[in-house]
Amino acid sequence: MKKNVSLLASAVISLGLVASANAATLKMAYDADPVSLDPHEQLSGGTLQLSHMTFDPLVRWDKKLGFEPRLAEKWERVDPLTMRFHLRKGVKFHSGNDFTAKDVVFTFDRLRNSPDFKGIFAPFSELKVVDDYTIDLKTEKPFPLVLNNVTYLFPMDSKFYSGNDANGEPKDKLVKHGNSFASRQLSGTGPFTVSYREQGVRVEFSRYGNYWDEKSPGNVDKIVLTPIKEAPTRVAALLAGDVDFIAPVPPTDHKRIAQKDGIDLITMGGTRIITFQMNQERVEAFKDARVRQAIAYAINQQGIVKKIMKGFATPAAQMSPWGYLGHNEALKPRYDLKKAKQLMKEAGYENGFSITMMAPNNRYVNDEKIAQAVASMLAKIGIKVDLKTLPKAQYWGEFDARAADMMMIGWHADTEDSNNFFEFLTACPDTETGLGQYNSGNYCNPEADKLMHQANSETSPKKRAAMMQQIETMLYNDAAFIPLHWQNLAWAAKSNVKAEPVLNVMDFPYLGDLVVED
Amino acid sequence: MIAFFIKRLAQAVLVMFVISLISFSIQDNLGDPLQEMVGQSVSEAERQALRDELGLNDPFLVQYGRFVKNALQGDLGTSYFFKEPALEVILNKLPATLELVFGASLIIIGLSVPLGVYSAINPHSWFSKVVMGISIVGISVPVFLTAIGLIYFFSIEMGLMPSYGRGDTVEVLGLETSLLTADGWSHLVLPAVSLASIMLPLFIRLIRAEMMEVLQSEYVKFAWAKGLMTRRIYFLHALKNTMLPVITVGGVQIGTMVAYTILTETVFQWPGMGFLFLEAVNRVDTPLIVAYLIVVGAIFVITNTIVDLIYGLVNPTVKLAGKK
């Protein structure tokens, strides 16, 4: 009894402490708000940002692309096919239900039925419950990315999502278009609950009083998220003091924001690569590696980054950004006009040729201007470009139809791993396996593919790194595609909002740990 | 009168039918709704399955037939993004847009009549010249720029007005309105001014030109000769006749104003239906796009009907069809 009383007393005291730790309200503006409260409906940045606020993953990425334990306290490899996770005890969902292995199984099964997430969980063959707080995740062959992929496993409250809703539909039903219980209600273990939501206008989050992570320094007890689509308005709202934190920040406003007192600009090298692909099926000349190399030599990545991106990007000569296992320090942008012309001559295209090019005009930062710059750079080696730019809504249809000779595509690896780039962008296209789904160039290098498959079942990070770096080198030498740059990320906040520690290159701010000073 | 309304109703139905047919037939060119619904790495087979589920693979006539059948029962489809009936989504946003149009109309009516009349009566005064000069500028600067300029000056530099969004709302008769709170008004000022900026110069110039013409007419000269009071001549005899063309243009312009709300609402993040429409286009939310076009068509028909009625009141010589 006495123990209970003291427990109660300490609870009261700690509650008092939380309240006196100057609980703050954060008003933030993003370019969009979450499409749905169902964390499995769409694999997008918005969904993952929401997941990190209202749920917790088993493990999450830290700033250096390492892993940090969350709902899994620790893990170990039992055998080459099995990874054992020890789950955190005493964690409660927003509904008050206890978090156990059952919830992990429930979520795992639901993920495997989600069109968007099933790809990430396909390598796993089984999730076995050892006891209430221990699970074994099994794969059919040795799989190196177990931890990468469980960053996508945000356990959902299995009791809360069981049974039928008012319309007689199962509460856990996953509906991609249309009303469902899970798209309107949520119960996770995360630091925030959704207290108000008017889609497209405002979402309000309140801190969850029983949040398990008591060590978290976060003191934000209310978040008001307003989507502000127009970049100038978003910036104006911050400068006028109407909001405390905004993202993304357009490159044109960086200088203004950085110079303003009381407002901090935070930038980071991003991981999204912007590339052009050269379609070998449409253009005979692109089959000749010398022509592709000539194009690679003709493109001035540094120039594009400096003039068009205002320095807000990192020039690239490969797909894997710094921090990825496959990143190969040796590969550098190779702008050399003389060499480019010489290669065109060697290939027998001294007089050049004409091609068509397509790029989106509202998908990537400055996408249209970048395409125009590339077109004019190609003109210098005699390649005449007929450029067409389209809104993203129409562009992807054209991309799927491979409607132009050169097409722009940007890619972010969901797994934060180099192999994801290879699988989608440069692997030999195969409709059966889905490999090369976004390889509009039809580039095919069986040797690179073989290495890629090997790397997929190699669990030693060192050996994998060597394999994937070798693939990058092969693609570089072959000029399989034209890499341009990695888009940087930018956020801006009032100086009392200590945003920097909770930001990361994946752009999932860990807002539960955010500290706002008086 | 009844015959007039029946005729109008028939016209409205026809207009909406044509709009629905046109908007339905262009939807294929708007892009693939699936792109906005699934992540980048979702396989083609999964996409096809979803398309089948949504009925997007059916032939045009089948899809349109299904749409008309549902539309006749008041169901214009379900928005992909909001996951609610498209009509409901739009009608929920309508009050915000009407507030904006109302605010802009107040500014336009409150300023254009006195300024237009003044500059017609005193065409050579320096004030008239300034008004005309500014109105030229106003008509040629795009709404977008005016809005950004206003935000920059009044929100960032002076810190007087909120930079975006709609203020606090209160519920009156089941409708959310921000017109009854101080916060609501402070949020409304800048968007209303920028929306008004495009129409105000037009009306000042229109009223001025009409008024000047009327002032030259025989009956005004006669009124002067009769020795009527100056105020009576200007504001009763002359102004009333000036208003006829102004009402006609005004009716048409209300529709145009609804169209301009798309820009204004986007810049100010005003949660109305214009902003909603632009977002829907970006997201390829086709049911919402089609429903929006039909609703705007209805607004055009309704405002024109009201204008015709007012016309009859102002000018007794105008006879509505069917009115004996």
TrEMBL record, chain A:
Gene3D superfamilies: Dipeptide-binding Protein, Domain 1, Dipeptide-binding Protein, Domain 3, Periplasmic binding protein-like II. GO terms for molecular function: peptide transmembrane transporter activity. Keywords: Signal, Transport. InterPro entries: Peptide/Ni-bd, SBP_5, SBP_5_CS, SBP_5_dom. GO terms for biological process: peptide transport. It comes from the Bacteria. One of its GO terms (cellular component) is ATP-binding cassette (ABC) transporter complex. Residues 67-430 form the Solute-binding protein family domain. Residues 1-23 form the signal peptide. Belongs to the bacterial solute-binding protein 5 family. This is ABC transporter substrate-binding protein.
From TrEMBL, chain B:
It is a multi-pass membrane protein. SUPFAM superfamilies: MetI-like (SSF161098). CDD domains: TM_PBP2. Residues 94-311 form the ABC transmembrane type-1 domain. One of its GO terms (cellular component) is plasma membrane. One of its GO terms (biological process) is transmembrane transport. The chain crosses the membrane at residues 9-27, 100-118, 130-154, 188-207, 242-263, 289-314. Keywords: Cell membrane, Membrane, Transmembrane, Transmembrane helix, Transport. It is found in: Cell membrane. It comes from the Bacteria. Belongs to the binding-protein-dependent transport system permease family. This is ABC transporter permease. It comes from Oceanospirillum sediminis.
